[in-house]
Amino acid sequence: MQDNIVLTMRGICKSFPGVRALNNVDFTLRKGEIHALMGENGAGKSTLIKVLTGVYSRDAGQVNIAGIEGDVAIRSPKDAQAVGISTVYQEITLCPNLSVAENIYIGRDKRTLIHWKEREKKADAILQSLGIPARAAQQLGSCSLAVQQMVAIARAVDADCKVLILDEPTSSLDEKEVNMLFKLMRELKERGVGIIFVTHFLEQVYAVCDRITVLRNGELVGEYPIEELPQVELVSKMMGKALEDLSGMKKKEFTPDSTEEAVYEAHNLSSNQGVKPFDFRIRAGEVNGFTGLLGSGRSESVRAIFGADHVTGGVVTMHGKRVKVSNPREAMKHGIAYLPEDRKDDGIIADLSVRENIMLAMQVMNGFWKPVSRAKQEEFARQYIDALQIKTASAETPIKSLSGGNQQKVILARWLLLHPDYLILDEPTRGIDVGTKTEIQKLVLKLAEEGTGVTFISSEIEEMLRTCSRLIVMRDRNIVGELRGDELSQDNVMKTIAGGNRT
Hints:
Elements: E1 5-16, E2 19-30, E3 34-38, H1 45-52, E4 60-65, H2 77-82, E5 85-88, H3 100-105, H4 116-130, H5 145-158, E6 163-167, H6 175-190, E7 194-198, H7 202-208, E8 211-216, E9 219-225, H8 231-239, E10 262-271, E11 278-283, E12 287-291, H9 298-306, E13 311-318, E14 321-323, H10 328-333, E15 336-339, H11 343-347, H12 354-366, H13 374-387, H14 404-416, E16 422-426, H15 434-449, E17 453-457, H16 461-467, E18 470-475, E19 478-484, H17 490-498
Parallel strand pairs: 3-7, 3-8, 5-6, 6-7, 12-17, 12-18, 15-16, 16-17
Antiparallel strand pairs: 1-2, 1-4, 8-9, 10-11, 10-13, 13-14, 18-19
Helix pairs in contact: 5-6, 12-13, 12-14
């Protein structure tokens, strides 16, 4: 191996029943490099990482690591750690009830007696050297999500890792926390650590990475220096089509005096989650959105609309008729559908099949004593798998086996099956690839054309500006402004959040 290369993977192949997940894939990581691994959901990124970390065995190919002779056999995550490969996942896998120091060292010392004061002193030195704003003795659960991610990285660094894999580490972080994480990544880069960065945020790739490897349909598209691959070309290579193919999305504009009826309207709506009483309405065919920083109350507001949180006050009308929406079943009965922010905990039932997950809402509406026939279930499942182009081996595949983007499509199918008048989408594109994001945005605008009112929430302001004709701006769980028409710009959104004047 060349002196500056820490990892090479050559001719990696991996198949599952009916699916060739990786076909002759090469990957090279250099010392002191931040290398983005990019591709749509199902491109093979996760499979390649799982082969590298010993979660999956490879069918063919070779792995070489600096300082180790010949092909390296990695049969388990423990083997991966032993040769200097560490992984930090999107979901924190540490113990929040233990201290920071205990999380860094737990499971690494086989001695019966451990001097934790010495460990805390050493942990504080590591934290300080990496610029991590935490103390060794404090409970990990008291730290922000970003700091917990950094502690997981500190644990990897203390284990003398040569290769650090960061799998969607920024998906739940705000801008300030992302910058903290990037600062740490650059510090590790200076120390010579090779970093594999997996993310769906294209702007972050160009902010911190040196090189990009693109996969598509389990095959290598190419490896590129960051400066030689403009963002437009990256998207094109990931999708296998020109960016012009993504055009054609046109949102419908609404003015305060538009004549379309309000499919939903609320006055002084509030909940037990601290949402201050607010007024809100959405017209048939309108796409609007709640925007604001993390914790601003945007998700709590739509949960109040759907009755997912306890509603403490307010009057609700649908199509001009007063209705009661105090729980999700009542909301569904009145034609409201809700795709939640947390797909994993609130959206899917992991062990059920794609078919069963699609049918959940309809079965709830029918009631326990009126089951939908198996034949009808299979018909509906086939219809929406085809309509939304859900990539699955069959309707009976457990949903946990699908990529995040395809899981999201299954949840969308669940609600579209009910033909709602009002559809709420909270972070529908978080953690999914750019191609699926575009498909979902196009679907939202198509539903609006057909008369559905849609509330769309995303942490990516540019995505909301492309999709929404009106934005409700929130700060401290209170509505602080509303933007429409020519007012819709990222600058105006940020000024309104900050409390400044819009231009």
